[in-house]
Amino acid sequence: MTADLSQIVKAYDVRGVVPDQWDEALARLFGAAFADVTAAAAIVVGHDMRPSSPGLSRAFAHGAADRGVDVVEIGLCSTDQLYYASGALNLPGAMFTASHNPARYNGIKMCRAGAAPVGQDTGLTRIRELVEHWLAEGAPEPAARPGTLSAGETLEDYGAYLRSLVDLSAIRPLKVVVDAGNGMGGHTVPSVFAGLPLTLVPMYFELDGTFPNHEANPLDPANLVDLRKRVPAEGADLGLAFDGDADRCFVVDENGDPVSPSAITALVAARELARNGGKGTVIHNLITSRAVPEVVRQHGGTPVRTRVGHSFIKAEMARTGAIFGGEHSAHYYFKDFWNADTGMLAALHVLAALGGQDGPLSALVAQYDRYQGSGEINSTVDDQAARLAAVRAAYQDRADVTLDDLDGLTVAAADWWFNVRPSNTEPLLRLNAEAKDEATMAKIRDEALAIIRG
Question: Which sequence ranges are marked TM in the entry (predicted)?
Fold first, then answer.
């Protein structure tokens, strides 16, 4: 096929519409290129529940086998289950998923052995170059000894491994509603929660890559509506929502109110620091709440602030030897999980924390939810650089604020801060603001928006 790889090879993964932008023939070339770039004797491949995933995954496996690489196919899995397989088997891996994107999309998330990420600077650019070359010149010659394809099973071991990282031995019985959004959480949750004193109320556990009930993107409040109603209706202790490939987890308290991912980051950070003797580095991106570094310091740890994006988090995790990292988008990274992200492990921490005491979740997380945040507000602008410069000009001479350029522009004062950063793919500026109280936050938010929108 003819294909414009610039449209589907992103910074961290491959993603596009099937079959318009890519198909099984192209997936086979990606498999061959992945084999060449990783130079591995064997790889592991898995896929989500999208209708196109089994065919794309098998084509990729055949492409790698054409280059003499043995392929372990683990079939249906979540993204963090694929990372587990890559870590436990010490093999490079490829996961076929488009996460929370609509049904017509699919993609590939790739990693090296031990779940080390493959992105533009760590192999993805070379993979793209090889595929483009073969599209122009013809597929490479098969290896003298083609690789083998074999089936692997990792679900039970994945669940057992996650449970081994959290002390769940003393938790009280809990009732938990889980909205899997017809994604891979419906496949993994029963295995991960096996043997725990939980009454599980499943919502949309049927694997269906057409997403008949709602998009599998809990970051959009519209997709939490059903869960927020169901938790109090069931008299449940909490609710959990997973995205399509089940690597992100969102939490709802007993009243049906969402718990901010920053509060979850702080809660898990405190627990991971306790597990590590009150010492360790915790990574957080610059638009998580100020509560996160405060809690980390209070529990003896060292907070490290990074740019937004999993490649930056994972790089800092490796550089600093951090024990944990969290993002505002509900990605949670663990040293004991090969520095990879797993919302399921974060969910187990929440269950352990809640089940280890008698109060409700709303009271438990209140200590970690100290400020008022705006959430992310997007503004379409004609000139990102000019509008960002206008924001800088408005604040740079004020004695009561500091400015930094780690990721866009952050303006910070004693009791508030905001960050404005440009989208890499759209003509947008993204604003996040936080303050000690709602009135201050609203004032700062509206001031910044007035400048951004001119």
Answer: none
Task: Let me know: does 24 contact 96? Beta carbons within 8 Å.
Answer: no
DSSP state of 222: G
Residues 276 and 203 in one domain: no
Q: Are residues 335 and 285 in the same domain?
A: yes
Residues 212 and 316 reside in one and the same domain:
no
DSSP label at 11?
A: S
- Residue 366 tokens read as 């209140």
Q: Residue 79 burial (CB < 10 Å; 0-12/13-18/19+)?
A: buried
H-type helices in 235-299, by residue range?
261-275, 291-298
**What distance in Å separates the CA atoms of residue 279 and residue 302, rounded to the nearest whole number?**
8
Q: In what order do the strands lie in the sheet with 174-179?
A: 198-203, 174-179, 238-242, 249-252, 258-259
The answer to whether residues 322 and 137 touch, using CB atoms and an 8 Å cutoff, is no
Measure the CA–CA gap between 218 and 260, rounded to whole angstroms: 12
CA distance 310 to 333: 9
Q: What is the pLDDT of residues 390-413, one digit of tens each?
A: 999 999 999 999 999 999 999 999
> Domain check: are 178 and 281 in the same one?
no
Amino acid at site 182 = N
CATH of the domain at 383: 3.30.310.50
52 catalytically annotated: no
d(C-alpha 348, C-alpha 76), whole Å: 22
**Among residues 366, 382, 399, which one ends one of the domains?**
366
Q: Which of 53, 99, 260, 289 is catalytic?
A: 99
Question: Which one, of 332, 161, 314, 155, lies nearest residue 242 by Cα?
Answer: 332
- Structural domain boundaries enclosing 110: 5-153
Q: Is 258 left (phi over 0), alpha (psi -120 to 50) or beta?
A: beta
DSSP 205-244: -S--TT-SSS-S-TTSGGGGHHHHHHHHHHT-SEEEEE-T
**What integer pLDDT is reported at residue 177 of this predicted model?**
98
141 with 37, same domain: the answer is yes
Query: What type of residue sits at position 74?
Result: I
In the beta sheet, which residues pair with residue 106? 16
Structure tokens at 145: 């000894």
Residue 310 sits in the same domain as residue 228: no
Does 183 lie in the same domain as 117?
no
Q: At residue 445, does pLDDT exceed 70?
A: yes
CATH label of the domain that carries residue 141: 3.40.120.10
**pLDDT single digits (tens) 325-362:** 999 999 999 999 999 999 999 999 999 999 999 999 99
